[in-house]
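User: structure tokens for this one?
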Amino acid sequence: MLSVALGASLALFSSISTADEYRDTLDGKPSAGAMAFDLVIVRPVSLVATVIGTGLFVLSLPLSIIQGERPSAPAQKLVVEPAKFTFDRPLGEME
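Assistant:
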């Protein structure tokens, strides 16, 4: 019985937080919490991903050249996309 009540309350709280997030984005602007989360957590992590992706691209570049492959596809996925996500999008927008 206790587990059913706990499960119901967790479901209720998760739907309330989802509704609250939806309400904050109705005007098309991210909330202050989303902006702070992006600035403090997401941007540093995506910067690290950009640096690691660049390192992996540099390591794979000689193999790509030897195999005769064009390095543009790995460069796009490992360097360009993480860099755009880190530096080119508005603060608080995760898409």
